[in-house]
Design a protein that fits this description.
The complex is a heterotetramer, with one copy of chain A, two copies of chain B and one copy of chain C. By secondary structure, chain A is an alpha/beta fold. Chain A has 17 helices and 22 strands. Chain A is globular, with a radius of gyration of 23 Å. Chain B contains 13 helices and two strands. Chain C has eleven helices and 13 strands. A seven-stranded mixed β-sheet of chain C has the order 7-8-6-9-10-11-13, with helices on both faces. The chains are: A alpha/beta, B mainly alpha, C alpha/beta. Chains in contact: A-B, A-D, B-C, B-D, C-D. At the A-B interface, α8, α10, α11, β18 and α13 of A face α1, α8 and α9 of B. The structure holds adenosine-5'-triphosphate (ATP) (2 copies) and magnesium ion (2 copies). One magnesium ion binds next to α6 of chain A.
């Protein structure tokens, strides 16, 4: 038997006294697609980072083709043919897409390089993998999903022997995810070893051959996908039997509208065309559209990020004069969960407690002085509500795993007890267990009367959680699905234009 | 898909350990303080004149002008900014103070005038940085030129000695034989410490410094917070100018022009990050004291002039380097 | 010289002058006093001013601009001993040039005698200290240099030390071996760098004070009065400035120096260099040069005298710093008469 | 589920035009250049002596020292760093140059020595910043002290006049009556321009400055790139010191000590961002020229010294402000 292309033996890693990886041993064969699963904070990203040379392990060995190697830096890992897409996007904002795709691999001749050759190279890679991206745009003008696609292209374009993908589909629509999974299958057929980290079990069960499960830094299962079931995997992740999935109740009758949007128009890209809708008291309204259709612009507008959008907004019967800035949205009683937690949502230098209380600090203070006990209580409650896994409320947000950061973000907005809750990708990177908990939490808030607008690229989330689902296409509302369920999925996708 | 039970093993928001465990910032502060102690021990072993209460006061007296400036600088740096203009505001404060004293406004009247003058400069800085969105380094480099030039213009290029040499009360010793301006420094330190730790404003500062965009999306008035920060910084610098004038019994348009870089050095040495969102009063004070003690100790030891300059640089590097050793290298910037 | 600058009336004698810095009173008066005189009297002189701002690069720029003005003469107050370059620029232009305080190649040199100032001041202070019984067992001499301004300027403090040390029986040190890098001159003498400024002097002395034995008397002398006053503040703060434990000599003859010499028992000598008149002497010298006078090879002396408490009113109006009269011309500067400007200005002892 | 079609709706049609449209940086450069022209027109209308070829050369001659320093500074700032230590390296270069000349090594020998001395300083800076991971501002503030002190020590605190005043060849006029050091500035500008635009090293620089972590993950030797940047910056500064010494015909340990802030101001004025990843040679040169022209014009107009200081600050603000007007205000920093 030939040596696996990548293997680790007895890997260990600690942050301070916190053991993040403990005695992890596994192997990845050429042409194998393997899934790495685990709850938020289980250590998946850490393992991937160790394999990518981005983080040094404390103990254990890494072997490439059976030979022990020191992956002392990403450069060394790349030289061994290991490419990596990190969970948190890492790109150069001011450079163009083409330059980001070819980062570190500029076409060169005697130290010189040329912009035209670079663009040709990037275009060729994009063409080969079937990605259509605005190659000449600066990276920071792209949407999150586009940026994710660039990152994927960047890694794939390296023609590596091993590719580590850390939740690449968390921010992608099902169309893009599907595309990626196909590319992955193609890569495996060509002998590339793929390590795939995801919280989307359906993807894993469709695209991967083997599965590894991490729990609290221990590898608790390694088996062929065929030998297990989603339920079994979830039990491995949690370390106990999982609850039965409860379809969210939506027995409420249609109630009076809390949020009314009338005639939203936007000339720029993506445009909006006469978008109007209501969200009732206690209703969760889903907006679904393919990337660039305009759904996210609607959410951002309600969050106060698009002063250029015209139209009328009414909250609780009183018109909102202007949504020129986020503060105005907050004052109108709208809480907004932005899509990109790292650049828009969280200050990574703050402790968990202060991040959770960020929006309600005024109400937790007297004469400008924060009542720290009350703050602690409130933050503790929120942390429990969102099922946060942290070492304590004093831990810095930047030290949390990606999924847990997301929970902090959602928690900080829920803290407002808003009349209107606008969510963009609320469970981006959150594990299955916690995802369901967040769904329940959102449902509970709705039952208490919160009007919720949900914008998600995850079709499953959209149909499961929404009381009503609007499909946005080319900036306009094209159809409405009252009470969608999993059977509506393909209809929704059709309406959105993703299946043409 | 199946659901998990709501209780997860270590969802422990109440975990007791974290309150007592050293976090990175505190640890850094402890290391720096140890470094300061090391310097003190070294100089004490070299000179009998060093480790005396008189000399301790000496160091404090010398450090208090830059200390007051550094408190304000700490605010700007924590908020992700930078205030070089204090190099002009300190002399401006000194000149205005001397003028007002000589015009018979009394110490309190003159102080009020100085604070107002400083606040105005700071307000302008704040507007430029927050509203015109100009990089704070270049903005305050420019306003440093303006305020410095103003100081010289007001003084018409000459020094303004206090008409009544008895009016240097800010520099006089009072309670426990400690100079008034040292009390001012301590008082302000306490105020800023409390403000940073326990007030909404302090929280906003750290949030804005940690991630401006996230702060804005959270509905924090980022512009207002930023403007206030510069107002405070300039008011502190202006006050420091009044202290300096009181020490010299003269308002000089050229005194204190090195306070910009000096205060930035002290604040960063004290553990703040130029990226914003990190830093605090204890660290800043330690930073100020390290620099002050070093200057004092070397002068007492009669270290030749140029070697003092070199040694200051080396020790600065050592201090920052040592306090960084334990730092996780994970994030680049 | 060639035709005058544009700003002056036709027929005026035009001068381009660069001051050391306009940001310190000491130097600023050179400019303002001359302006006052020119404004008040019909002198036929027009001066265009530049500011070297204490910066050699700026000085070089100004030298070029002054040459570009094509004036009848140039007056330069250099900022440090980096004068070779500007000497070349000025020399190439063939414009007559006066260099004040620091020598510049291709320029005639107008200066005080720093060495004499230090020596004369040391004699007065030394005599007073000796009378009080100060000696090596109980005295520290504190001298304040300004390293950046170059060797010539610091001659005053070096020769002050070398003169006063033998008077009081302190360890002697060759003046030439007192370098800018030196802090401990001897067991009884410390040097600090006050940059000729108030606050840096205050700070420097504040820091080094503990190294002066508690029972020692202090003799303070620096390159200028700003520096001396800054040091004095630090001594006062530390309670080391008692009337019987401190003696000082000033250098400058400015308001603070003259006032202190009259009122402060510790301030026993003042090197009066009549700085506010330097502009007038420079103009007179420029005119003399333009008329073809040959200046002495070494230096043309500026008026100077070291005053003590008894002689202070010889040159100043009682109770004021206004100059009553200036010391008579001496051999090296007698030719300045040829310029004619001093006569217009008047009030030099023995000159009509 | 089946695969999606590759064409996505939001691949904006404008993406094609962007190659021809003015991008943000170029636009900014054009505005700044226009501003420079405005300044020139203003001074020309005020003084006949201003708009002459002699005076143009004058401005260039004065600007070239700070120009050379700024080219190096641009490299550090683009790479996300900062080099204040040039304030010490310039005098060090000047002193070393004068010493070597006087020791008979000839102009080329002395220049080689100067470049080596600079490169060593820069290498140390680079190690401190890249390996010890110390914030560049504080690191280079410290090494500024060290190199500045070294310069004074080497010169023993005094100036070192050239023994042979004919050895100021770097400052002499040659081709077309333009001074050699102006040619040096122009030559270096061209080299740096090409390096930034067309070489792999240049791309590395923008990448490292734009996002250090992304560069590291892409396998770029971030530490090596960073170190090289500081080596170049210090070598340029050291060379600028030799030029300054040639102008003064004297190596001075106190000349050029303001080049740190000055060069940073010029580079930022020229459109670079302190966050890194942005900036270039044309902008830097325009920045240098704006500052140089301003100083020259005001000196010619005999603007009183203090007003010059104030005016410099105001114009700096105006220039940065105007060039920023079109900037999209969407992101804070
Ligand atoms: N730099 C760090 N300092 C301290 N602790 C860290 C650091 N990085 C990660 N951790 C901790 O390590 C643990 C594992 O994190 P990791 O990011 O590997 O989780 P994950 O399995 O990828 O989770 P997710 O599904 O949420 O992405 C978490 O408890 C996290 O808090
Ligand atoms: N080591 C590698 N790193 C990056 N890309 C690779 C590597 N090996 C192969 N590829 C590219 O990945 C792409 C996907 O593989 P391929 O084109 O063979 O897929 P396919 O079987 O044609 O499937 P489909 O086009 O339907 O997705 C190919 O363009 C291939 O060149
Ligand atoms: Mg992760
Ligand atoms: Mg294939």
């Amino acid at each position: 038997m030939t040596a696996p292309v990548l293997a680790v033996e007895a890997l260990g890693k600690s942050y301070g006294r916190h053991r993040v990886l403990d005695d992890v041993t596994f192997r990845l064969a050429a042409g194998e697609t393997t899934a790495l699963l685990g709850e938020n904070g289980a250590g998946k990203s850490t393992l991937a980072k160790v394999l990518a040379g981005a983080v040094p392990p404390d103990s254990g060995r890494v072997l490439v083709d059976g030979n022990p190697v020191q992956l002392s830096s990403p450069r060394v890992a790349l030289e061994h043919g290991i490419a990596f897409i990190p969970q948190e996007l890492v790109y150069v904002p001011k450079l163009t897409v083409a330059e980001n795709v070819c980062l570190g691999r500029w076409p060169r001749r005697a130290g010189f390089t040329s912009g035209a050759a670079l663009r040709r190279q990037a275009a060729a890679e994009a063409e080969r993998l079937g990605f259509d991206l605005p190659l000449d745009h600066a990276m920071d003008t792209l949407t999150l999903a586009q940026q994710q696609m660039v990152e994927i292209l960047k890694a794939l374009a390296r023609r590596s022997r091993v590719i580590l993908l850390d939740e690449p589909t968390a921010a992608l629509s099902s169309h893009d995810s599907e595309r990626l999974l196909n590319v992955m299958t193609g890569l495996a057929a060509d002998g590339v070893g793929v390590l795939y980290i995801s919280h989307r079990l359906d993807e894993v069960f469709r695209a991967c051959r083997t599965v590894h499960v991490l729990r609290n830094g221990h590898l608790v299962r390694s088996s062929a996908v065929a030998d297990t079931t989603p339920r079994g995997v979830i039990e491995d992740m949690l370390g106990r039997s999982a609850d039965e999935a409860v379809a969210p109740t939506r027995d409420r009758a249609w109630a009076r509208p809390v949020l009314s949007v009338r005639g939203y128009e936007r000339a720029g890209l993506p445009p909006l065309r006469d978008v109007s809708f209501d969200v009732g008291e206690g209703e969760i309204l889903g907006l679904y559209g393919v990337r660039g259709a305009g759904a996210e612009v609607i959410a951002e507008t309600l969050g106060g990020l698009h002063p250029e959008v015209t139209g009328e907004t009414t909250v609780d019967g009183s018109p909102v004069r202007t949504l020129r800035r986020p503060l105005a949205a907050r004052r109108a009683g709208i809480a907004y969960v932005p899509a990109d937690r790292k650049s828009q949502g969280l200050a990574l230098t703050l402790p968990v407690q202060q991040s959770l209380s960020m929006l309600v600090l005024r109400s937790l203070s007297r004469f400008g002085v924060v009542a720290r006990r009350r703050e602690r209580t409130v933050a503790g409650k929120l942390a429990a509500d969102v099922h946060l896994r942290a070492r304590g409320l004093g831990q810095l947000v930047g030290e949390l795993s990606g999924g847990n950061q997301q929970k902090v973000l959602v928690g900080s907005r829920i803290a407002m007890r808003p009349k209107v809750l606008v969510l963009q990708e609320p469970t981006r990177g959150v594990d299955v267990g916690a995802r369901l908990e967040i769904h329940r939490l959102l449902r509970r808030l709705a039952d208490d009367g919160t009007a919720t607008l949900l914008v998600t690229s995850d079709i499953e989330e959209a149909v499961n959680l929404s009381d009503r689902l609007l499909v946005i296409r080319d900036g306009a509302v094209v159809s409405e699905f009252p009470r969608p369920d999993f059977r509506s999925q393909s209809d929704v996708l059709h309406a959105a234009g993703g299946l043409d | 898909m199946t659901a998990a039970t709501p209780t997860l093993p270590d969802t422990t928001p109440e975990s007791r350990t974290s309150r007592f465990a050293l976090n990175e910032g505190t640890l850094r502060g402890v290391i720096l303080a140890a470094f300061l102690v090391l310097i003190v021990v070294f100089f004490s072993s070299r000179s009998d004149a060093f480790f005396t209460s008189d000399n301790a006061l000496n160091i404090l007296v010398n450090a208090s002008v830059i200390g007051i400036v550094s408190l304000g600088q700490a605010l700007t740096i924590i908020s992700g900014g930078f205030d070089l203009s204090v190099s002009g505001t300190v002399p401006l404060g000194a000149v205005v103070y001397a003028l007002l004293l000589n015009d018979g406004y009394g110490v309190f009247g003159a102080l009020a005038g100085v604070l107002v003058a400083g606040a105005i400069c700071g307000f302008v800085n704040g507007l430029i940085v927050a509203k015109a969105n100009i990089n704070p380094l270049i903005a305050t480099l420019a306003t440093m030129s303006v305020t410095g030039g103003l100081a010289l213009t007001i003084a018409d290029g000459v020094q303004i000695p206090f008409d009544d040499p008895e009016q240097g009360v800010l520099a006089e010793q009072s309670l426990f034989g400690v100079n008034n301006h040292v009390w001012i420094l301590l008082g302000l330190s306490l105020v800023v410490f409390v403000a940073l730790r326990y007030t909404v404003f302090g929280r906003y500062l750290y949030t804005v410094g940690g991630n401006r965009e996230a702060a804005r999306l959270a509905g924090i008035r980022v512009d207002a917070v930023t403007t206030w920060v510069y107002v405070f910084s300039a008011a502190f610098a202006s006050l420091a100018g009044a202290v300096l004038a009181s020490q010299l019994l003269t308002g000089s348009g050229t005194a204190g022009t090195d306070s910009g870089l000096q205060s930035v050095a002290a604040v960063i040495l004290g553990g703040a990050s130029l990226a914003g969102g990190v830093g605090g009063v204890p660290g800043t004070l330690i930073g100020v004291l390290i620099l002050g003690t070093l200057a004092n100790g070397m002068a007492i030891m009669s270290v030749p002039a140029f070697y003092q300059t070199i040694a200051t640089g080396v020790v600065l590097l050592l201090a920052v380097g040592i306090s960084q050793i334990r730092r996780i290298s994970r994030r680049g910037r | 010289g060639s035709s005058g600058g544009k700003s002056s009336a036709a027929g005026d004698f035009t001068i381009s002058a660069a001051n050391y810095t306009e940001a310190a009173a000491l130097f600023r008066v050179i400019h303002t006093n001359l302006d006052d005189v020119i404004k008040a009297k019909d002198t036929g002189v027009a001066v265009k001013w530049y500011d070297n701002a204490g910066d050699p690069a700026k000085m070089t720029q100004n030298a070029r601009l002054m040459v570009q003005d094509k004036p009848d003469a140039i007056v330069m107050y250099p900022v440090s001993n980096t004068t070779q370059g500007i000497g070349k620029i000025i020399g190439d232009s063939k414009i007559p040039c006066v260099s004040v305080n620091l020598a510049t190649p291709n320029c005639a040199f107008l200066n005080i005698d720093n060495r004499a100032l230090g020596i004369d001041s040391a004699k007065i202070v030394g005599a007073e200290a000796k009378k009080r019984g100060w000696n090596a067992s109980n005295t520290t001499v504190l001298i304040g240099q300004n390293a950046a301004s170059g060797e010539q300027v610091n001659d005053c403090v070096r020769y002050f030390h070398s003169t006063i040390a033998p008077i009081l029986g302190l360890p002697t040190v060759e003046p030439t071996s007192i370098t800018p890098n030196m802090t401990k001159v001897s067991a009884n003498a410390i040097q600090f760098d006050g940059g000729s400024q108030l606050q840096p002097s205050f700070k420097a002395v504040k820091n080094l004070l503990p190294s002066i034995p508690k029972n020692h008397n202090i003799i303070l002398y620096t390159v200028n009065n700003d520096s001396t006053v800054g040091a004095l503040r630090a001594l006062q703060d530390a309670g080391r400035a008692g009337n019987d434990t401190l003696l000082m000599a000033g250098l400058g003859g400015d308001e603070q120096g003259i006032k202190a010499l009259r009122e402060d028992p510790r301030w026993v000598a003042e090197g009066d260099i009549f700085v506010s008149w330097w502009g007038q002497y420079a103009v007179a010298m420029a005119q003399a040069l333009a008329k073809g006078a040959k200046p002495p090879a070494e230096v043309t002396l500026l008026p100077q005298v070291v005053l003590d408490k008894n002689t202070v009113d010889t040159y100043h109006q009682p109770g004021s710093v206004d100059v009553k009269q200036l010391p008579p011309l001496v051999e090296s500067n007698d030719y300045l008469k040829q310029g004619g400007f001093l006569q217009v200005v008047g009030n030099i002892e023995g000159l009509k």
